[in-house]
Amino acid sequence: MKAAFNIKVFFILLFLTFLASVFNFNIANALDPSGSVARNNPECTGNAGSVITQPGTTNCEVTPDSQKISWYRVEFCTSKPTGPTTSATVDRSDCFTFYQNDTGSEVSIVQGVGTQIGSAADYTAVPYGNYSYGIITLGSTFKFTTSVTFNGNVSDRTNNTTTCVTKVSSEGIVYGYHTEINTFAKGNVSCASGATAAEITIGVNTLTNDSDNDCNHLLTFQGTTANVATYLLESDGTLVNGVGGTDPDQIKNTVTGCKEGTDNGISRIQGIMALDLKITPDTTGIQIKYNNTRGVTLAMESSNVMEKFDSAFFDFDLSAL
Predict the structure, then answer these.
(1) Domain span including residue 85
(2) Backbone phi, then psi, for 186, in 5-degree steps?
(3) Overall domain count for the chain
(4) For the chain, what is the total number of helices (H) and then of strands (E)?
(5) CA distance 238 to 251
(6) Is residue 165 a contact partner of residue 222, using CB atoms and an 8 Å limit?
(7) DSSP 35-97
(8) Cβ atoms within 10 Å, residue 18
(9) CB neighbours (10 Å) of residue 88?
(10) How many other C-beta atoms can be found within 10 angstroms of the C-beta atom of residue 203?
(11) Mean pLDDT for each 10-residue chunk of the chain (321 residues)?
């Protein structure tokens, strides 16, 4: 249940133990996001067991049956890097790249199962020394397969049973900021009797929304053991134009970069986290611990009527072996 990155042979195995949710950030043109959050929603009652209490009207988070993410870069830094802005990428002056795959390497994350990330060619040995920060760059879409059984009936607007599963949407990717799914066909949930869970894709197009539905593009996520400054990035590694133009770290609702049902120009999620990583001649690898015990959200439309499955925050720890 550990993820071991073998530095000597540049080979990585990922063993899931801790993964926690989808990144939500607030960073415009500053070193650090101005806001922070631990969770967007509470844990569903009964998540540790096999039956979930009917959520009523409250969104809640559960463990997905399976989850996939795409890795782009893992970097170790000897000092705190300056975060990206709308015109500049993260400052890597004091950083070394350990893993890089510019097309992304998709990784299956299932608790207790090891999964390889990329190939030997994606890894580079880093110098011996002490590293106090890490930069992790992931793709902005996540894949899930999930079946949830409740202690009473839950509806998808058409069907009403005790089990709801992930269902492929006619839209393909369903985005987190998507307040109005007007027809059942566009949803990614089925509560039909006997339905089988299918793999769905959820896109992150905002970290959080405020009460006016303005979109936060950077935010500090309070992880299991460390805080992570999180940024939503364009493909060139910069923040979307307009972030911070009116309010710190965000774009106003309905303005380009904060529209429902679109990617809002976002293709990467980047996290900057504090580390206490010492790499010496005796180091045999790097361990990553994940927490996905609350990796997917049940988004409720009304009392015990599910609108969609959505992603949730996730976090991880890095340490030397």
Answers:
(1) 3-320
(2) -85, -15
(3) 1
(4) 0, 23
(5) 15
(6) no
(7) -EES-SSPBPTTTTSS-BPP-TT--EEE--SEEEEEEEEEEEESSPPPPP-SS-----TTEEE
(8) 20
(9) 13
(10) 24
(11) 30 29 37 83 90 96 91 95 95 95 87 68 92 95 95 95 94 71 68 96 91 92 84 96 92 92 94 91 73 86 93 72 62
